Amino acid sequence: MADAAARTSRSARRLAQLEEMLRQTGAARLENAAQWLGVSSMTLRRDLARPGLRLTLLGGHVVPAGSLQRPGQYALETEQDQHAAAKRQATAHAARLVADGDTIFVDCGTTMPHFVESLPPGPQLTIVCYALNIANLAARRPHTRMVLLGGLFHPSAHTFSSDEGLASLRRLRLNKAFLSAGGVDAIQGVTCTNFNEVPVKQMALASAAEALLVVDGSKLGQLKPAYFAPVSAFARILTDATLPEGPAAALTTAGCRLDVAPPAP
């Protein structure tokens, strides 16, 4: 009886530590979380198997239980027409940075399809992606080799996630990573809605010679639940002319390079 109570107490302390860590990181690979806690992955799996926890396992990652997708929380179909003109303006501006022979990472979401459509047909490119809507567009491009990171399919955002996909991305060396976000705040950092996207975004950041954030102006000053990077992780933030003055000034004060697309003629 005493041994069981001691095990339960140790498990509760570990979970409390892990929950505190995830408030900062949003998600963590099971193996990394176990190493950080000084236990085996199997021990941590047993900890997380208890009912009623605020943490859960998703695709080999530990995430807050409240981050699991709820109907109506986010769906690609309902988001794709929001701020479409601003997204096209920002992504056309970003597409000018792609050079012949580049290996580029293209993030998921409703902004990045405009980016792929803005790429000129001439350059020889390798496009690395993990979203079905991006893969469909990249597959139709001439002179393009596509690397699709597979795994468990998430219907709400049309993305894939798996440890194998992360391992493939870790082995790649990217000239540029073009990332999207749901929120960009000078203090709170760069965030998105879906926690399962966090490890992919962070691995792309680690694998790229240059990281570029592509967002329309409505995302500046916003905050979503899944944190994945500080604003300083990006060489520049590419956006459109609708950016709000207050958040834009805060980002500039924080040392960010805001690269604003010229207004459409």
Structure characterization notes:
The chain is α/β, with parallel strands linked by helices. The chain folds into 2 domains: 2-67, Arc Repressor Mutant, subunit A; 76-260, Rossmann fold, CATH 3.40.50.1360. It is built from 10 helices and 15 strands. The strands form 4 sheets. The protein has a 7-stranded parallel sheet with strand order 6-5-4-9-12-14-15, sandwiched between helices. It has a 3-stranded antiparallel sheet with strand order 1-3-2. The protein has a 3-stranded antiparallel sheet with strand order 10-11-13. Helix 2 (30-37) packs across helix 3, helix 5 (84-95) packs across helix 6 and helix 8 (163-171) runs parallel beside helix 9. The longest helix is centred in the N-terminal third of the chain and has 24 residues, at 2-25. The protein starts with a helix and ends in a 5-residue tail after the last strand.
**Averaged pLDDT:** 87
Distance between the termini: 76 Å
Number of helices: 10
- The arrangement of helices and strands along the chain is HEHHEEHHEHEHEEEHEEEHEEEHE
Which percent bin holds the helix content?
25-40%
What's the topology here?
Layout lengths: L1 H24 L2 E2 H8 L3 H8 L6 E4 L2 E4 L11 H4 L4 H12 L7 E4 L5 H7 L6 E5 L2 H8 L4 E5 L3 E3 L4 E3 L1 H9 L2 E6 L3 E3 L3 E4 L5 H10 E7 L11 E4 L6 E4 L5 H9 L4 E3 L5
Parallel strand pairs: 4-5, 4-9, 5-6, 9-12, 12-14, 14-15
Antiparallel strand pairs: 1-3, 2-3, 7-8, 10-11, 11-13
Helix pairs in contact: 2-3, 5-6, 6-7, 8-9
